[in-house]
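I have been asked to look over a protein record a colleague put together. Alongside the sequence sits a line of tokens, each denoting a local backbone shape. Please read both lines and tell me whether the tokens look consistent with the sequence. I do not need a full report, just your reasoning and any doubts. I have pasted the whole thing underneath without changing anything.
>
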Amino acid sequence: MYEAQLACNLALRGGDHLSVAACSNNIANIYKTHGKYEEALEMHTKSLDIMTRIRGGDSHLDVAASFNNLGEV
């Protein structure tokens, strides 16, 4: 369902949107839970990239949370 939500958000909002970052993060968490760490890292990295662009760098709490998610993987 998260993948369907991501596809809809990409189609409706484009790649640089908080909803796309959130969906990517959710998918990454599922991958991590299932031991698919490479896939989880890829999705968390996508989420971090979007957050960094939208939030204007790495001095925002959302960006810090994305770094934390990467660290947990």
